[in-house]
Design goal:
Structural class: alpha+beta
Distance between the termini: 24 Å
Radius of gyration: 14 Å
Mean pLDDT: 90
Shape: elongated
Order of helices and strands: EEHHEE
Number of helices: 2
Number of strands: 4
Strand order of the largest sheet: 1-2-3-4
Strand content: 35-45%
Helix content: 10-25%
Oligomer: single chain
Largest sheet: 4 strands, antiparallel
């Protein structure tokens, strides 16, 4: 949807993100935090939710998932800036938090 608030910052958190491990296909659970400053349009939340749910069938590494989400969302709404943080549950005794950021050139 369109926005005319020049200093608006939107933060969306979804705890329902599941990806599949590339090698084994076992599930990985994550909380995704998406923070962005929209230029002209904001993301529609139901569409965003369905998009994030689509990863449950993908065999993908953490880093690739976060980068792909960032790339796709930047392409969809062309924000001034956007940060995607993937906070993945512990696996093998290690916790991974992956952050990717994009900023529109001045």
């Amino acid at each position: 949807w369109l926005t005319n608030a020049p200093r608006l910052v939107v933060c969306v958190t979804s705890g329902a993100v599941v990806t599949r491990r590339s090698a084994s296909g076992a599930p990985d659970f994550a909380t995704m935090r998406i923070t962005y400053q929209p230029a002209e349009v904001c993301l529609e939340l139901k569409s965003l939710k369905m998009y994030l749910w689509s990863f449950r069938n993908d065999g993908i590494f953490y880093e690739r998932a976060v980068n792909r989400i960032l790339d796709d969302l930047v392409a969809a709404c062309n924000p001034h800036s956007m940060t995607v943080v993937g906070d993945f549950n512990v696996r093998g005794g290690l916790k991974s938090i992956i952050t990717a950021t994009a900023t529109k050139p001045a």
